[in-house]
Amino acid sequence: MATLEPFLVLAEAVSEGRMSPSEFSLVCLPLYKSYGGPHPSAEHYQAAADLFYVAHDYDSAGVGMPDLLNDDQVRQKAAEIAQRMRVLLQ
Hints:
The two termini are 17 Å apart.
């Protein structure tokens, strides 16, 4: 079964400045795409998916589009998602 902990670690690292948004995107995108198993609930899945879309929207130049989020927006959105994840994991 898939868990939120790896995604929470990433969200906290980028929101706290321990990881750059570029590094976050490089790790989050393949992690999400290759992460196996069902999530414990729809809320867990949505939190992980929301974090994936933050990484995707930051690195959208890789798919031929301009980046949709800047560094500060990535950090802010990741902080909000990390808070949701912490509540889900209680």
